[in-house]
Design brief:
The chain is α/β, with parallel strands linked by helices. It folds into 3 domains: 172 residues, Thiamin diphosphate (ThDP)-binding fold, Pyr/PP domains (Rossmann fold); 167 residues, Rossmann fold, CATH 3.40.50.1220; 190 residues, Rossmann fold (3-Layer(aba) Sandwich), CATH 3.40.50.970. Helix content is 38%, strand content 17%. The strands form 4 sheets. The chain has a 6-stranded parallel beta sheet with strand order 3-2-4-5-7-6, sandwiched between helices. Strands 11-10-9-12-13-14 form a 6-stranded parallel beta sheet, sandwiched between helices. A 6-stranded parallel beta sheet has the order 16-15-17-18-20-19, with helices on both faces. β15, α14 and β16 form a beta-alpha-beta unit. It is globular, with a radius of gyration of 24 Å. 55% of the residues are buried.
Length: 562
């Protein structure tokens, strides 16, 4: 393929930003740094082509890029300065790696002549990011920027998607070079062989208790719709891997629940009892398999048909009976075209699994003055079906994971890496890239203070998410584990919190504290009115510490352990 423009003289910063535009970048999330000033100047000059979102912390900027990429299915970009900025951004890159999300982290670096002297904020990109990025490298020649950016966008989107990190010495960005742009990269689809799809269908048709598990990255709305249609036509029960509940959404009759941190015991038992697992896109990680107990490595008791876009994943932990290398869109289209059996042997098995899910999805009553079950019912009534629901990490997230009826793909943003501090920046990014949709973030009191200052970013750039801060005055997940192992001996998990609603108002956002169930409805109405005005809105929800999960209480945990 020929280059799409004649060589022309530009600074490295201009070449870099032109390459970002060429490859479809629409937003750059950043904390500005003196180590990449030429790139910042190029972003200023191309503000009509690419929007720069200025954040308050590099971890939040990286999480915003990850969330935007996850939501749109396109690679997104984060800029940070060298040294401290690189280290701060690392958490978002770890999330992007574990969540299979295409994120490009561009980092300033000391000048080439100073490398190896431990200059001011100098760092080694390959040693810092080599284990948690698909590719990490330093650009040492400005004339190679078009080539290396094309490679970065290819690597991010090929096979299993994931992050790429490039460091950019100051003088590389300032250097003037005469070089042509490259054409935009088009991701390569990996299509399953027809005989492999036929073999999969034949193995599946022989099962008596099959279960499909969907997850991983690289899905599209069309692929999710295709795999949903396949599952429904075949009357197959489908379980979502951890935080992938919008691929085959709860409204589908095929959906039977999530294999996450609060898995329904009935679904866990069904995984163990299955005679065949058809795993589409998911890795079968630690959370999804409940500590590798539901599916035991290396040879599961269930027959395993595993489809994944990375050949290195097949057989790495589990030896499949049939392994297929494929990206999800062509694989899902091939499955949707398969003729279903007339009346599968597993019809009653599927019906029972669906009934179990529906029974478990009814919001429960929570102890304390504020009932989270009532809140979930209100949200189901008031928020649109295409609401983008964003989760942070923590026990509070069980309420939305279990009781929110996620819509069609993509309506769920959550870190499968379990990273706290994700929800607020992710919700802001979602509101920026999908401004016509409602965005709602669930975050605990611990996670909120890790990134809540990004409300300033929302105000600066006009993002208006709804932020629900669940405040129980403790690191609830750790407290839960303590009560199980050291009953009645909590330590280092209590929190002294500020007035979160006043904190939000200090930035100009709407903020209100809610301490009782009766106040939930009017508070939610006021928050939604603020969103309609274009303002972020925050509600603090005072949760009784007894409501430690959606299924048990602190007292019950302590009693069971003693």
């Amino acid at each position: 393929m020929s280059q799409d423009a004649a060589p022309r003289a530009r600074t490295g910063g201009e070449v870099l930003v032109d390459a970002l535009v060429t490859h479809g970048a629409t937003h750059v999330f950043c904390v500005p740094g003196e180590s990449y000033l030429p790139a910042l100047d190029a972003l200023r000059a191309r503000a009509d082509r690419i929007r720069t979102i200025v954040c308050r912390h590099e971890a939040a900027a990286a999480n915003m890029a990850e969330a935007a990429a996850k939501l749109t299915g396109r690679a997104h970009v984060v800029f940070a300065t060298r040294g401290p900025g690189a280290c701060h951004a690392a958490i978002g890159i770890h999330t992007a790696f574990q969540d299979s999300t295409p994120v490009l982290l561009l980092l300033g670096q000391v000048e080439r002549a100073a490398r190896g002297r431990e200059g001011f904020q100098e760092f080694d990109v390959e040693r810092l990011f080599g284990w948690t990025a698909k590719w990490a490298a330093e650009v040492t020649d400005a004339s190679r920027l078009p080539e290396l950016l094309a490679r970065a966008f290819h690597v991010m989107q090929a096979g299993r998607p994931g992050p790429v990190v490039l460091s950019l010495p100051e003088d590389v960005l300032a250097e003037v070079v005469t070089v042509a742009d490259t054409p935009p990269v088009r991701p390569t689809a990996i299509r399953p062989a027809a005989e492999d799809v036929a073999a999969l269908a034949a193995r599946l048709a022989q099962a008596k208790r099959p279960l499909v598990v969907v997850g991983g990255g690289g899905w599209t709305p069309a692929a999710a719709a295709d795999v949903t249609a396949f599952a429904e036509r075949w009357s197959l029960p489908v379980a979502a891997s951890f935080r992938c509940q919008d691929i085959v959404p709860p409204a589908s009759l095929a959906h039977v629940g999530e294999l996450g941190t609060g898995t329904d015991p009935a679904l866990a038992a069904r995984v163990r009892a299955a005679d065949l697992l058809l795993v589409l896109g998911a890795r079968l990680g630690e959370i999804t398999t409940q500590g590798y107990a539901l599916v035991v490595p290396p040879v599961p008791t269930q027959a395993l048909l595993h489809v994944h876009p990375d050949v290195g994943e097949l057989g790495r932990v589990y030896q499949p009976d049939l392994g297929l290398v494929a990206t999800m869109p062509p694989l899902a289209a091939a499955l949707a075209a398969l003729p279903p059996p007339i009346r599968p042997a597993w019809h009653d098995w599927w019906a029972a699994a669906r009934a179990d899910y529906q029974a478990a999805a009814v919001p429960a009553t929570a102890p304390g003055a504020l009932d989270m079950g009532v809140l979930m019912t209100l949200l189901r009534q008031r928020l649109p079906r295409d609401t983008i629901m964003v989760n942070d990490a923590g026990n509070f997230s069980g309420w939305v994971q279990r009781f929110w009826p996620y819509g069609a793909y993509r309506t769920q943003l959550a870190p499968t890496s379990g990273a706290m501090g994700y929800a607020v920046p992710a919700a802001i990014a979602a509101a920026l890239v999908a401004p016509r949709r409602t965005v709602c973030a669930f975050v605990g009191d611990g996670g909120f203070l890790m990134s809540g200052t990004e409300i300033a970013t929302a105000m600066l750039h006009g993002a208006a998410p709804l932020i629900l801060v669940v405040d129980n005055g403790m690191y609830g997940t750790i407290r839960m584990h303590q009560e199980r192992r050291y009953p009645g001996q909590p330590f280092a998990t209590d929190l002294r919190n500020p007035d979160f609603a006043a904190f939000a108002r200090a930035f100009g956002a709407f903020g209100q504290a809610v301490t009782a169930t009766a106040a939930l409805e009017p508070a939610l109405d006021a928050a939604l009115a603020a969103l309609a005005e274009g303002r972020p809105a925050l509600l603090t929800l005072a949760l009784d510490p007894e409501a430690i999960t959606t299924r048990t209480t602190l007292s019950a945990l302590r009693g069971a352990a003693t």
